Amino acid sequence: MRMLAAAVCLGLVLCAASCSEKAPEGSEVREHSSVSSTAPENGSETEDNDMSVNEKEKPEIASSSPESSEDTTKAECARFRRVCCIGDSFTAGFTFDSRGNATETNEDLAWPHYMSELTGCEYINCGKSGATAESWLYTPRGLDKARQSGRVDAYIIGLGLNDACDDPGMRLEVGSAEDIGTETVSYYGSMSRIIREVHQISPDAYIFMQTIPTGEDGTYDAKRYDPYNNAIREICAQYEKEYNTRLLDLEKFKDRYINNKVLHDNAIGGHYYPKGYREFALLLFDIWNEYLSGHSDISVSE
What we know:
Layout: E1 29-30, H1 52-55, E2 82-87, H2 89-92, E3 95-96, E4 102-103, H3 111-119, E5 122-127, H4 140-149, E6 154-158, H5 187-201, E7 207-210, H6 222-243, E8 245-248, H7 254-258, H8 261-265, E9 267-268, E10 271-272, H9 274-293
Parallel strand pairs: 1-4, 2-5, 2-6, 7-8
Antiparallel strand pairs: 3-4, 9-10
Helix pairs in contact: 3-9, 5-6
């Protein structure tokens, strides 16, 4: 039996206000992580900001969404005992305090933390605010941390939101299928390199790639994201035999994001308060369970 490493592009669907992960004008950005063993990248210790999000009661893992599962003890995704989450600000838990100050890293408030509570499994947070598929490869919270974490049963990748944004200093051009397997700096090239890199860490891995749900109201702009979704599908198809890639097409579930009141009510600056990240974890929990329940061939060696 192969170990399973699932690479699922997640945080891409979450930005309702902006594709950029910058804080609102005039706000201060500070790193804050009470869970991560990794200090902020400037080498200083994390600062206790007395954030209002930390002062709020920690939400129980109970869903306000009718689709969410109540019995987590039989969760299909609980087969992955160690999961490494690769992504941008939505994985890192970017949020704001009551004074409008932004903190880039809040692992105890991010969706991987809530997935850990839902499943009873270990979720390692390798999210970096502002990351693209290319920059993630070189940030200390990126590939370096994934390597240091060692072998895992699953990788969940959430990159693409910043890649598709309008900011020329952040945007990563999509490129073409000819970039797959090369060192070309493009979404095709960099995403395919991430797959190869994590495959080296966990060589018996399955790698799940997840598309970006799009809407007709401009919130999840199909014109913007379709080229990146096509790249995900092409990379997945080309790498299936060699790297055990599998496609989880979130286009089939886009109504769950677009029509979710909890997500809308807990959005701020294109990101979320803790209840929003928790709700995203609940959505992922249900979608991943539904997918895996139809794929009994996907298993993790003991």
